[in-house]
Structures are given as C-alpha cells and as structure tokens.
Amino acid sequence: MKGILWDGRPVEVRGDGWVEIPYEEGLRRVAPGLTDIQVNGFGGVDFNDPEIGYGDYVQALRALWEHRVTCAVPTLITNGAARIREQLERLEEFRKRSESERKSGSLKNIAFAPYYHLEGPFISPEEGYRGAHPLEDVLSTEDSEAEGWLSRWQKAAGGRIRIMTFSPHAGNVSRFISTLKDFNILAAIGHTHANSEQIHASVRAGAVLATHLGNACAQFLPRHANPIWSVLAEDELSVSMIGDGFHLPPEMLKTFYRVKGRGRILLISDATQYAGKTPGAYHTHIGGDVILTPERKLHIAGSPNVLAGAAKSLWEGWKYVSSLGFASPEECWYAGSGAPLKLLTGREIDSALCPLVFVDEG
User: Fold this and answer.
1) Mean pLDDT to the nearest integer, 232-240
2) For a disulfide at 162, which of 97, 115, 221, 323, Cβ 3.0-4.6 Å?
3) Which H, E and C letters describe the chain, residue by residue?
C-alpha cells in the first residue's frame, strides 16, 4: 500500500510500519486508521445483544474496518450487573479468538477491539440525563456492591475495561475514581446531572473525559448552571462529541472544538447496530419502531425529531465535521485517530492498532 500523508510525504506500508518513498503520480491520501472509543454496535450487530455470536462479532469488526476504523472499543450500556459480566465474558472470548486467528493469518481486515467501554450503570437516574438507559438497572456509585462488581467485570473482561462513563453526582466521587484507577479504568463523566462543584471534584480526583458532551442531558437546562458549561470550564478534561450531523448542531461542534482544541476533542460515532445498514424501518428493543433515513438519521417512527441512536460511522462523522470548515480535515482526522488512541494507550501512533488506511473513497 502506497499513499500520501497529510504532510505531503509519500510512504509505503512495510511490515507493521511505513517508510518514505520517492513521489509517484496518482497516490491517494492515507492516514493512521481511526480509533472509535464508543461503538455500541455496527453493521447489523449489537455488542449488547446476549445472543451475539462469533460470526456476528467478526462481521461488525470487518464492517468497521471498511469504514476506516481499525481500532474500536465495544461499548456496553447500562444493564443488570450480572448480565454485564456475562456479556464481557462473551466479548472477551470473541476477542481472544479473533486475535489468534489474525495472528495465524486466517482472519484479515477486521478492526482491532483491544478494550471495552462501560457506559453505565453508575449514571444519573433522572429523565433526560439517563437517556435510553433502563432505569431499573441504574446503580449508584455509593452502592455497597459497586467495588465488587467493578472487580468482577474487570476480571470477566481480562483486565481490558479501559473507560467507564459514570455520573459524579453522589458524595463519594473521589473514592469511586480511585477505585477505577486501581482497576486501570479511565474515568469519564457522562449521563450526569452533577453540579459544577461535583464535576470539578471529579476532575481533581482524576476524571479525564466527558462522554458525548451536549447529549444525554435534559432537554431544557438552566442558562448558567448546567453540566455543559461546567465541563467546558475544566481545562484538563477532554471531550468526546458525536459528529454525525444530528446529535449536535454545527455551532456546538465548533464551540466545543474552539474551547478544547486539538488533543482534547475526540470524535466518536456512538454507533448502534444500524450504522452501515440499509435505510428503512426497523424494530429495536430499546427504541421500539425506528426509521433509518437515507441521510443516516435514526429516529423514532412517527417522531422525526426524536433520535433513536447514531447510525453513522466515525469515518462518515469525520466527513461531516470536516465539511463545516472550522478545523482542517487533518485536525478532524486527528480528533478521531491520534487523540483517542493517546487517551487509550498514551501513544498518538501505533502502526499495529492503527495501520495506514485510505482517507477518501476510491
């Protein structure tokens, strides 16, 4: 594979890396593959589905690879504590098998899925902030079983839970984040009605990310005291945002990027199983009857303004965000590649997890 990097250098992939080569006509633009830290499902496959099989898992990772996502983080939402453990065991079994088959050469062109993201169940129980997460399964960070479940979940995941999105509205935020650190889990704020003092306390304690800022919050917020302002005011806190053109308006995407800047803005897809599927009418266990439009908007049937999840890949989101013009295509790509990879691993480039891919269609 040969191509042109963002800085104009012609390169060729050799082994697990790439080397510079003399310029050739007709080379296409290439860049390290995208890293999506929030993927609930893809290509008709739901990572939260207890009936998911190994073939489904590979199908989703192969479809993600086709969308330039080479490193994906399967994301599990709020569920019963025991069901979360069972699903982590299942996904970890699939991950191990896929890695073994990849090494043997019998499985190629699928995204790596080296970590997991738990979005819940320690989130706000309040309407709006809770989003589509089932209220009956929401847990408090002050629950006496919280630390025990974290231990069991991380064991089931082979130590690979890397991100947990939780709400810091309770009084034990410092202790909870300390426990996450003990398990090598990054603390992310999201689905929260926490006030500014609680958010600030969580950042002091070690929270590093705000999950899909601007979403999973009440429809109507106080003008001044609300979680969006509080998160933006925390200089050390990175922000992930859904760039599909439906979850956030352009002015919010631009403002978030201007405030946080390169390195602290992460593009995510928050994709559901409907990403990569043919437009049409579907039925989902969370949202009921839904419509996927030709523009890739997923909404509740009969209610076009009520979203039922995300149905664009990170690559499609990159194309939309970069078309808005407030950041260069390269900066937007970095927000979906180098920045999230650095959050996960401490490295902006990893030629094994994120090999070069073609940026554009062709």
Assistant:
1) 98
2) 115
3) CEEECCCCCEEEEECCEEEECCCCCCCCEEEECEEEEEECEECCEECCCCCCCHHHHHHHHHHHHHCCEEEEEEEEECCCHHHHHHHHHHHHHHHHHHHHHHHHCCCCCCCECCCEEEECCCCCCCCCCCCCCCHHHCCCCCCCCHHHHHHHHHHHCCCCEEEEEECCCCCCHHHHHHHHHHCCCEEEECCCCCCHHHHHHHHHHCCCEECCCCCCCCCCCCCCCCHHHHHHCCCCCEEEEECCCCCCCHHHHHHHHHHHCCCCEEEECCECCCCCCCCEEEEECCCEEEEECCCCCEEECCEEEEECCECCCHHHHHHHHHHCCCCCHHHHHHHHCHHHHHHHHCCCCCCCCCCEEECCCC
